[in-house]
Design a protein that fits this description.
two-stranded antiparallel sheet; 12 helices; single chain
Length: 281
Amino acid sequence: MFGYVMANLPELSKQQKKRYGAVYCGICRAIRLRAGQMGRLGLSYDMAFLALLLMSLYEPEETGGRKACMLHPKRAWVDNEYVQYAADMNVALAYYNCLDDFEDEGKLTAKAMAGVLAKGLPEIRERYGRQCDAIEQCLQELKALEKAGCDNPDLPASCFGKLMGQLLVFQEDMWSETLYRLGMALGRYIYLADAAVDYRRDCRKKQYNPFLAMGTGLDWTRWEQYLVLAMGRCTEHYERLPLVQDKKILDNILYSGVWVEYRRRQGRKASVEENNGAGSL
């Protein structure tokens, strides 16, 4: 479900691309230190947005270096408490996602990956119990709604929105309410975008999809109204934050990147389904 909150790279300057890559590599490096090499397989660009947003808001001191890893020997990385926080949240999300995949589909690879990620989870939970509780509780609520075949897309979308809202709140302060509402709207967008992209596949496999449960048939225009509304609310709260550092990268992600990635996935999934003989759904 994650991976939608990405930059539109062609629209970034050379320096902005370096900065974006350095934050991403910083998170990847922090994950390796927490969960080992295998833990990095669950890395998501969504967490780079999380780190950049908090860094821009709180402007912490940064450390860094070059040679991010064996695969990227010349790439720079940065480190600070928000990069480390994003790494922790990435590990926690990946862990619970793997558990969910194993419980729902019996994937042994997911069980094995959960075992790898579980090693670092006690320390993460000790540092960020509120966020870990929110991830676990919201995913349980979401599973219950999906199992019940909920025909109101607002309910599961809001459930995932609560999860993202809690993740964006690093600490309780004067910005926590705005960050929560921003995350709430962004989480709704992610859930609904993923539902739209997966509609044909879920039809074919007879799996839950909120738009399928509505019984309205394939209706891209109506679904995108949900997405536009969610991102409109997201950017409304985003613009209330006093951001300067890295704001152009954040603007690129929220006003362009999320839509580029949605269209890319939408087109790719449609092509796959048509090749599988499901293009008439």
